Amino acid sequence: MKLIVAIIQPQELTPIKEALVHKNIFRFTISNALGQGAEIPIHEVYRGIAHDMKLLKKVRLEIAVNDEFVDQAVDAICSVARTADGTGHGKIFVLPIEQCIRIRTGETGVDAIG
In whole angstroms, how large is the CA radius of gyration of the chain? Predict the structure, then answer.
């Protein structure tokens, strides 16, 4: 069992979701994030005061999968993110999961992930 955490650009979210569903990966969690990569900070003026926005909007995508789905999930994310122009396409982290428990049924391990 693995936890895939991907930090992606917001505009890539919809095509990545479609690519994951196409690979039969339906269960994932999405949250908004702020982050700084290699991008140049944005200079903004708000109410007449200049600010350098160093933390840019990102999307954090978390997917818990059984081992046989890891490559498919990573390929789905990369196939979309690599086709975008410019720099800063994001990062993907693959972490081991020690235990997974489905609260409703009490199932554990690979059965709980689905």
Answer: 17
